[in-house]
Amino acid sequence: MTTPDPADESVLVVDFGAQYAQLIARRVREAHVYSEIVPHTITAAEIEEKAPTGIIFSGGPKSVHVDGAPMIDPDVYDLGIPVLGICYGAQLIAHQCDGTVGRNERGEYGRTELAVNTESGVMLDGTPETQTVWMSHFDAITDMPDSFQVTASTPDAPVAAFENVDRGLYGVQYHPEVVHTEHGQHVIERFLADGCKAEQSWTMASVIDTQVELIQQQVGDEGRVICALSGGVDSAVAAALVHKAVGDRLTCVYVDTGLMRKGESDQIVETFERHQKIELIHVSAADRFFEHLTGVTDPETKRKTIGEQFIRVFEAAKAEVVGAQFLVQGTLYPDVIESGTSDAAKIKSHHNVGGLPDDIEFELVEPLRALFKDEVRAVGTELGLPDEIVWRQPFPGPGLGVRIIGEVTPDKVAILQEADWIVREEIRKAGLEREIWQAFAVLPGVNSVGVMGDERTYADAIIIRAVTSEDAMTADWARLPFELLDTMSSRIINEVGGVNRVAYDITSKPPGTIEWE
Ligand code: XMP
């Protein structure tokens, strides 16, 4: 299935191996232009076919001078589409358009003072003569041909910003996309408004209109669709979008895998039937999942086993929804990236992407595939979904299965459900639900010696995990108040049988991931 263009006006972010490619795409969307990331191997002809309003070259870890440095098809410069190069992207423009990229004696990393020339050009117009920018480079552009105007410099980057308005070529050595760069968003906005003459009219409402149209095209007038409802915000928003597109040709299926949080199944069915008013089939399939998980300890095998059983349950549910050939999934952009693409390394098989079996009998409908979680929440709100759905904390498709290390059994799930309930209840009571991206318990399958009521114990440990994040691509461990951790710890030990120790996970992402498996 090819994905039709999601917007009339778009900016392609060409990825040269940057850490910040997604961030650039976000900043462009914040400036109301739809944006997506493409690999640097894209040809000029492929770009022309996509007809973007503008192109942004991302940064990257290489030097333009080394063998194998990622390049771009030079015909891109003749397409008449404005290009903004950031860091490596700016050096690449210089390198390919007769400028000089020098190998510096020393690089610039972090906070740097930028001096803006009196003739500040398009991008820096209206900004102060000196401003703080965020740098991360070793090589530096030392010279540009006369047709380019040099608009700013720093102590170690004589050409820190340049532009050639006639050719539509712009470059900045620093990172306008990071929050530490003053006036960074201004640079992106000016590139879009003046450089690209973009209308900047893209909004979450446009996402809805466009996606509804795309879903209608994909499903046709007769197609019947089922939606895998997990209880999380993603599948709820995906279901609401598809419902808007195809009405009662959509049936939602909620599979109780036995790996859900305490009380979750009842809550989902209740909330969903009340708010969404969409036909819902509730399948209790815990026995099947536990049976297939017997003896499975490897995290990837576990994910794939759960993914496969999900699909088998859906295939069985298909009999109830006669003729359903489409399956909606709430796959998000970070799921796609972390499950591995041609450019990005595979971190783990996200249940709704890499965890699917190859012989799946459905055509997938994934209307949120290009969005980040906060954008999905905005779409959900725009679609009128209530806060209790939109602001639910994310919960992974494989459920508690990836929070139990080693074999998953009903007994272990029962322990984890109770501990997890306490963690979430205390977060809720402390009013931290929105501030914390996710807070949950993990059962590491480790026993330790303890003493309770003068008796020796040898029982399970529970790990509390709470993180803050903007989009799950990176996360930091939450600095929860000690008193709160104390309450969680005593409640877990007192109320959950078989647990004698509680630890708090203080690992950020990277190097950890949010889930333990
Ligand atoms: P990690 O553990 O990769 O998680 O840092 C990032 C975010 O994704 C959620 N997650 C999943 N969501 N299917 C999902 O729908 C999955 O297989 C899956 N694995 C992790 C995780 O809870 C976190 O919010």
CATH topology of the largest domain: Rossmann fold
At CATH level 2, the architecture of the largest domain is: 3-Layer(aba) Sandwich
The strands making up the biggest β-sheet line up spatially as 2-1-3-4-11-10-9-6-7
C-alpha end-to-end distance: 30 Å
Count of DSSP-assigned helices? 14
* Small molecules (ligands, ions, cofactors) in the structure: xanthosine-5'-monophosphate
The computed structural class is alpha/beta
Sheet having the most strands? 9 strands, mixed
Shape: globular
- In total, the number of strands is 21
Task: Please report the first level of CATH classification, the CATH class of the largest domain.
Answer: Alpha Beta
Domains, number:
3
Whole-number mean pLDDT: 89
* Low-confidence parts: 1-5
Radius of gyration: 26 Å
Q: Quote the beta fraction.
A: 15-25%
Tell me the CATH superfamily of the largest domain.
Answer: HUPs
